[in-house]
Amino acid sequence: MPLRVLSALDNARIQYYHFKATVIAGMGLFTDAYDFFCIPPITRLLGHIYYNDDPPTRVSSTLITVVLLGAAIGQLVFGVLGDLKGRRRVYGLSLTIMVLSSVVCGFSICGVTGCVLGSLVFFRFLLGLGIGGDYPLSATIMAEFANRNTRGAFIAGVFSMQGIGILAASGVTAVVCSSFDKYSKKSKDYMTTDVDIAWRLILMIGGVPAALTFYLRMMMPETARFTALVERNPVQAAVDMGRVLDVPMNEIAEDAPIPAHPPTYPLFSKQFLHRHGRDLFYCAASWFLVDVAFYANNLVLSTVFFYYVDKPTNVYHLALKVASLQAIVAAAATIPGYWFTYYFIDRIGRVKIQMFGFLMMALVYFAMGIPYKDYWFKQVQNSKKSRVGFSILYGLTFFFANFGPNTTTFIVPAEMFPARFRSTCHGISGAIGKVGAIVGTIGFQWASSTNANSDYPHPHKMTVAFVIWGVVCLLGALVTYFFARETKGLSLEDNEIDE
Q: Residue 499 burial by CB count (10 A; 0-12/13-18/19+): exposed, middle or buried?
């Protein structure tokens, strides 16, 4: 017989607090996207200062990879802590690390290239720890607050804050670069020191929105599911839920005490693997595969599409062009993908959306990759030719990633596991995903290497890369087909059966 407080949560009507929790929990995802998408234009600014306006691809790749490495570690550590100490108790810590790291990135020390970039890499690793820690906690908290019929939509809403983060990164970059460009024209002086201030300012601003939600995050109560099922205190769970949800206490208070014998089998025991091993493999493998393609694809924009625009007159214009292209892709493809998932996920289910997304991504990658050397590459080189076709295909990779596995892989691990393993298993799945992101980023660095006598990426390597990403997405569809199970409309407590 399920506890009354948990049954009340499963059947509660949508309330103001659900939307408030979505924004609070989504700030970590906002910061993640902001700090990822501000790097391509920042790399251009760093290139002006340290590389004579020609930053090597390894600089951007390193600044992104080190965050991904930190995020993988953060997901593991904070995932475990979320199940041991409670979601709320460590939630503020991950946000604190994110905010402080964003700020100190702007204070990367020294005036020597290696020293500045070395300290920036270190601070971005710390930033990754905070971002990674926020993933399992945000997903778990939103899943445990939501009702069974709209749970997928609200977790997708948390994840969709990434889209807002992308637009914010592009908007802040545009404002900062435009302001410094106007200042340099007014003063008739184009100073490298001004460019140095600009990239630091862009990074530091990224921590402000997350800092503004710190108090609200600290005021969130512990989730009723953790309090009732892990701490075995349904009375406190009812009190906590009464503070934030419009549910009468007489509907959620227990008539009898909870049984005093909690389940005992540990993580990765034979019992755990028998009951949950298949689900953990599915969550981790699908997340790994989508991130291989998705993170590499993000880097294509500043390498291939950079040649779609007229040559900028200075480094501010260059950074502004990259940021503008990112904003266009986000508004036209990325954000619509998130919101399609938000609308459909509790109607058609997680498995169908993930299968469809993987298959469509594979088709689009093949359509980009197979004719890339002989057709698309020529369009990139010839500014007079129409590039609408390639632009549409590139946008569709983002649409079907977000109306597909990039979003569902964040949602499903928060639904498949018992309360006492939920945050940990989400962290494990996400950490494996970030390993895939690192693989994709390193692979892109190889694919984007230029010809000896050309500024353009090697067309043969880009062809191979697009085709490989298509094959990876097909593997993701196969993993989903053979290992996935649907969680639409089910109570989270269904995973507690026979515990």
A: middle
